[in-house]
């Protein structure tokens, strides 16, 4: 079974709250969330940093959007290893978005600090999950540097991130 990490922007698009995402991107995000629920393991951090970010953008009650429904499902299923892997990551005293496991690589020094938790979960997961991304161009700009560290990104809406 494949594992994935769901970047927050996929939930936003699935909830129809992204001005830049068109119908094709919306369908790709909804399909990715459904596939994650039915056929994959979703990797998150055990300290709930990823959930905290999700909850700034979605309704944990599971309504009204499909991104909301996915988060309710993930929250309800986080203790089941067939659905979710909870990965221990190590924050440093430097700040909330700094982690011991984040690569010490000049090519990643300007990578968005708020997205570093996703990278660290990808690095520490026993499943080597792919990061799913829809609209965040930062992942596109740093894809080569991330790949050097075996962090791979699936771009669900490549036209949006490549032109940024």
Overview of this protein structure:
41% of the residues lie in helices and 18% in strands. It is of the alpha/beta class and 164 residues long. It has one domain (2-140). A five-stranded parallel sheet has the order 3-2-1-6-7. A two-stranded antiparallel sheet has the order 4-5. Strand 4 (91-92) and strand 5 (95-99) form a beta hairpin. Helix 2 packs parallel to helix 4 (66-77). The longest helix has 17 residues, at 23-39. The radius of gyration is 15 Å and the shape is globular. The termini are far apart.
Sum up the structure in keywords:
7 strands, single chain, 164 residues, two-stranded antiparallel ribbon, 8 helices, 5-stranded parallel β-sheet, alpha/beta
Extract low-pLDDT stretches.
none
Number of strands: 7
Residues in helix, %: 40-55%
Numbering strands along the chain, what is their spatial order in the largest sheet?
A: 3-2-1-6-7
- Count of alpha and pi helical runs: 8
Strand content: 15-25%
Tell me the overall shape: globular
Q: What is the C-alpha radius of gyration, as a whole number of Å?
A: 15 Å
Detail the topology: elements first, then pairings.
Layout: E1 2-6, H1 8-14, H2 23-39, E2 40-45, H3 49-55, H4 66-77, E3 84-87, E4 91-92, E5 95-99, H5 116-124, E6 130-133, H6 137-141, H7 143-148, E7 153-155, H8 158-162
Parallel strand pairs: 1-2, 1-6, 2-3, 6-7
Antiparallel strand pairs: 4-5
């Amino acid at each position: 079974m494949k594992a994935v990490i769901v970047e927050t922007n996929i939930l936003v698009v699935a909830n129809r709250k992204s001005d830049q995402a068109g119908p094709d991107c919306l369908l790709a995000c909804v399909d990715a969330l459904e596939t994650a629920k039915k056929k994959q393991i979703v990797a998150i951090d055990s300290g709930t940093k990823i959930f905290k970010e999700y909850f700034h953008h979605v309704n944990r009650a599971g309504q009204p959007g499909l991104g909301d429904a996915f988060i309710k499902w993930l929250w309800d299923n986080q203790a089941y290893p067939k659905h979710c892997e909870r990965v221990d990551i190590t924050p440093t005293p430097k700040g909330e978005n700094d982690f011991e496991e984040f690569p010490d690589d000049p090519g990643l020094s300007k990578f968005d600090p708020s997205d570093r938790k996703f990278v660290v979960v990808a690095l520490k997961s026993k499943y080597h999950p792919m990061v799913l991304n829809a609209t965040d161009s930062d992942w596109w700009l740093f894809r080569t540097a991330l790949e050097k560290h075996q962090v791979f990104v699936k771009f669900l809406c490549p036209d949006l991130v490549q032109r940024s």
